[in-house]
Amino acid sequence: MRIEKYKIEEHNQPLLAEHKRKFDFVAAGFKNIEPIIQKLIDFNVAIPSWALGTGGTRFGRFSAAGEPGNLEGKMEDVGLLHALNQSSGAISLHIPWDIPENYAAIKTLAAQLGLKFDAMNSNTFQDQKDQPLSYKFGSLQHVDKKVRKQAIDHNIEVIKHGVELGSKALTVWLSDGSCFPGQLNFRKAFQNTLGSLQEIYSALPADWKVFVEYKAYEPNFYSMTVGDWGQSLLYANKLGSKAYTLVDLGHHLPNANIEQIVALLLMEGKLAGFHFNDSKYGDDDLTVGSIKPYQLFLIFNELVEGMDAKGMDHTTDLGWMIDASHNVKDPLEDLLQSVEAIMISYAQALLIDRTKLNEAQQGNDVVAAQEILQNIFRTDVRAIVAEARLRSGGAISPLQLFRQMKIREQLIKERGAKTVATGL
Ligand code: LRH
Ligand code: MN
User: 20 to 30 A Cα–Cα from 309, which one of 179, 231, 281, 325?
Assistant: First the structure.
């Protein structure tokens, strides 16, 4: 299903006057807003191919109808999001859930939908049907060299798929670890994993990156072999200049100061990018900004400060990806809300008066520094984000148009109620 341009204009027309009133009001509060709008126009967030169907937990999965039943359907759905918000111009594939059967056809479809292929994701946390050796006790860490080789070969295969599609990065998230004290020799597990990652690293094309994603627990509940940012950075530093640390917001122990981790990884030039989501307890994979919006703002504050300090390109130098799971909401509505939350936090971070903030910090004027951040966080920048969308040919209110056009109902008519998307 595609959304015709005239449908977007028809939606925007009656909303223009109110939008302009709101935009003029907030824009009047800031000196030169144009470069900020341009940065928002250029910014894109990659949509996870594994989050276009309904997610579930071990206690149950309540499927939604009209889910995409194959890779083409998933790309069509990301194309719908991108047509609505003009900020979702990339898809991140997960292998083997999304093995492209015909590279040329998939690339043509991506071009038609205005989509790029972001980081590829390998999967050695599940045993595939007729897989010779099990990953029950790990993959790249495994005590058995044959199991490690099987996992290394899978990652190299994933790189091959990515090269064909024009992706430039591989994300390696390992469920490897242990559930009980004594089960694992931590040093050997680290060295086996490093050795395995080095073989994968040497298979990377010259212009590729490998993102080492860490996670504090689940599915192992005593130790994870890439358990925190320090361990991931240890691997990335030992691997080489093409290896970076990927920050999934849900992969931290309670009350971790993620914005400080981000600032230091950026300083080291070892930040890969993000899997954006939100959580109250564990790896809940909830809608971005739905539980801790101030934390998301503080993370983007460190990102803008750190990227500008290193003269980095906001659009291309980091991986901007969502990693969420939708147990009770329509996957596409949930993803529209997540992209909006990311754009709002990025816009607010761009509006911070860095000179004033620096003066307050240099003067140890704690109250002034806090007020600078909180005033911006309490500024409603939604009209600025909508203005960037409008100028890019998107909808002033993507979610409203998604519902007005009854897109889910149309997808159900097209696909039926029984199709199930591969993924989590
Ligand atoms: C692990 C994770 C990883 C993906 C998976 C779908 O929790 O965040 O990034 O491979 O979710
Ligand atoms: Mn993730």
Answer: 231
